[in-house]
Amino acid sequence: MCFLRHEVESEEMIRLAREGFGKDRGSGAIRKDCQKSVHKDEPTAATLISSTTGAKLNCIFCDRPHLSQDCQRLSDMSYEDRKSQVIRKRCCLVCLKVGHLAKRCHSSVRCLICKRRHYPLLCPDLRKERESNLSSKDRTTDTEQRSTETLLTNLPSEHEIYLKTIMIRLRNRDKEVCVRALLDDGSQRSYIERNLAAELFLSPSGREIFSQGLFGGGISPASEHKRYMVNVESLNRKYSTPLSLLEQQKICSTLPRIHDRKLLSELASRGIKLTDVGRDSPPIRVLLGADILGSILTGRIEVLSSGVSAVETLLGWTILGLGKKREVVNLVTLSLQNMDVPKMWDLEVLGITDPIEKINESLLEEETLTHFKETIRICEYQRYEVALPWLAGHPALYDKYDAAESRLRTATKRLINENYFEAYNNVFKQWEEEGIIEAVPINQLAKEVHYLPHRPVIKPSSNTTKVRPVFDASFKKPGFASLNECLSVGPSLTHKILPLLLRFRSGAIGVIADVKQAFLQIRLRTEDRDVLRFLWWENTGCSEIRIYRHCRVVFGVSSSPFLLNATISYHLEREKFQTESLRKTIGHLKEGFYVDNLVTSVNAATELEQLKSQSIEIMKEGAFELRCWASNDSKEDQDKQMVLGLSWDVVSDELSCKLPANTDCTQEKPVTKRVLLSVINSVYDPIGFTAPALLLPKLLMQEAWRGKIGWDEVLPVELEHKYRLWEKTMHFMSKCSISRRLFAENYDDFTLHIFTDASAYAYATCAFLRCEFKGQVTVKLIAAKARLAPMKKSTIPRLELLGAALGARLAQTVDSILRTASKTYFWCDSMVVLSWIKKKESWNTFVGNRVKEIRDLTNIDDWRHVPGEVNPADLAIRCCDWSDLLQSKWWEGPGWLYNDEESWPCSEVSETPDEAFLERRKTVVTNLATGNEVRFGDRFLYFSSYKKILRMTAYVLRFCNNIKRNSPKLVNSLSCEEIQKAEETLIKIMQSEWPSEIREKYKDTIQFFEENGILKIQTRLILSQDPEDFTHPTVLPDHPLLERLVLHTHRSLMHAGVLTTLAQLREKFWIPKGRRVVKAILRQCIKCKRLTAGKVNPDPAPLPPDRIHRLQPFK
User: Which CATH code, of 3.30.1330.40, 1.10.10.60, 2.40.70.10, 3.40.720.10, is assigned to 161-322?
Assistant: First the structure.
């Protein structure tokens, strides 16, 4: 033990010499940051265990036991990869260790190249030196290699790649199932999906613990895998063998099946029959590795004309190789992996947001608009120039063009193959002539910039532009941010859609128009143009690349919609347009623009002509051209128009939803979560008149989500059957239409009616407008919203309350857009909810918050009860298909609403249902009058120690003395008399707050007396020679100040125990139930807790194999 003590002391002295007295390089001064007190850990068992486990230092690049700066893999990694790996591991960029940031690192590391604080492996100068020494051939090879990696990472393959997949039969006793298997000779072991093992009721025959090597050299953490024995058979049952398979949660992602007819016919001509064919892609549930493949391969291989190879096994034929080129690339699947599907249901509250969300949006809008107004200016030709709204402290952008060059070559091949290269090239030539883009000067090529990849979007059906470029501002490399991540997107424009549609439906004549190339009419300031560079060819021979940059706002950048809307608003607020003659037109333009679309309505043809002429001139002043005017008053426009995603028939003046174009494709596919999500997002209805029919696929999606079904797993038969029945009626969607105009012509009066309802699956609200004119009544649906019930089960009254709150928000949105109605009615079929709203009770948090919101937004006297069978919102919470929706015509309102008010449903909330009182807030009633009183002594708890309280009291008493006229002024340090007087004052405060009823309990056994206003007790030791405080101790009742005094005494005695602390206190004080009080207070001492903590008993290590291996005697 002495040897260990000397070793520990020596190590401690060395560490103090290094850290406490070390000098900074280049200066003789002692480092101030090292002159801190060294914290010495207490020698506890917990410290021993943490020190033992923390001693293992692994490299952050290869996870092997050596220093990170000495790793051999660094020579194969680029500077960007090294830096991104350090950031990903959350290590310090100076010392490469975990637990702190570079700005707080005290390490004395110096780079040998640039003399800055980092290791040479993270030196940017070393990167530049290496790049300058690379030959042009090596640079080209490196660029092509990195471009290929980027292409493989960001772009889907243009060809089908077939792996060796096969259909096999698994059998366990009388249980049998056919599954897809992957033959992978790169895997050392064979695996079976965990769920499949459960379906076959397999019993594990053993367990194995091992790590799995990953692509790129990584190693997964060691984990336990169960081992199963199962019989594997071919589909024709000609071959069967028992195999040992290890369980795995998931084998791999989706792999395509063979469905190429030309390939299948060639295989059939050679007598080869495949088992894994079809257009669907079931999951891979078994992987047969190298431990099994060697025994089932026959050696026969057939190479087809397309280059695909057919391989024969005892389980059947399989193929391997590069298939035909894909005709359609579904880019939606790229974003589904990161999409938060529960948020998909939040998107239905267009224009109906929570108050907290409105506050956050207003703050964001203020910040972005302030920056916009400070940077916008008017340049030549009355064109506006804006700046990109950069986020403060945004990450670095990738400044190389290797990825952009790779994407350029890929796009060029496609354009040449599809004969669109010349048209694509002409677009850039036209842009350069119009000043939309410009070639980067030679003297600016070395500047730090960012390059945007681009790709062509081809629309052969377009009458104007059949091909146009689209720029990818979301592109990013590992360790760098994308351009969109560095920019503020500004306030969301989604909440403007419903108000725009309400204004569009208000007037007799609907009017739409759009701005020609709206984004390209706004200039960007010169400082921001270099982050919008892109590559294109110098000539049509595609032999030399030229660098261009954008001079205008780019479509595809996340901040572009905000910049366009803010610029138009800024233009309309110019002083020259604030005249009486233009006031009405300016109002239409301010409230009618959504990005580059103008959507509004007027009441007369003369008003329409005035709007057209004045709007064109006003927008022309800002270099904006309004075109493509359409209205239901024009005799020329006979085609259907698109208005904010809805189809508008200008002849019948009706709105309808556009039938999705992929309806036929989805009917051929198996029903999966991916298909459901595609169908849900393909139907766009911001008004909500199709809400009842859209409820079923959303419910199926929620059920699949609750069942944790994979994206490409086929739904259960019951769910699939419901979807197929619903899908057969989708052709009725185009026939479901509503009138655009809300108000009847020459109406006398109109009222607003809000209906709410809920079921166990959803809650909904709908708003109707009722107009009267000379006894004739018209009822039109304004808007409707249906929301799925939360995943967590809730009661029906609570869901009804959610529907009522949604209806209150909808009423506020509608009332802010339309003219004030003569009266607003709220209809609900739940007596419980009406009781919550009308009765003034103290409800619990969930109910109380929503009732408060409803009371703030509505008048409680406007809420009425309606029977459920005549509530139109009831249909929005019941699943129906498109044919049922068309037959119901629920957007025309309930029949009783066309009658007089006397015949409307009428039932008062007389008595509160018992179910409503279940949500009453639970309260505690107390009879103590002093329960809510604050004692004067509690104010001293502001200070954490008794010593501070004592000195503060002494200073207060000194101040009281010094403000007296004729009293001697006390200065300098506190005297003993002042401290004693302060302690007596504190004792008087504690005794004055001692409840009298508690004091009365001790009168029969203890003799109390007062001395100088302080309560003391008379003991039997009054004749002894002990001090006065011991023979006549002062009474200290239970008080918060007593806790500070006990802890102060405890610490002064070096954290002594209960008996020692109590004995010291009894020298001067008497504490009722002293032992119990002191013991309870000392339990709060943190240091005592740590020192008296029980020892840690680690689990015993397993016995070595030599001690448990079974052998014969004397072997």
Answer: 2.40.70.10
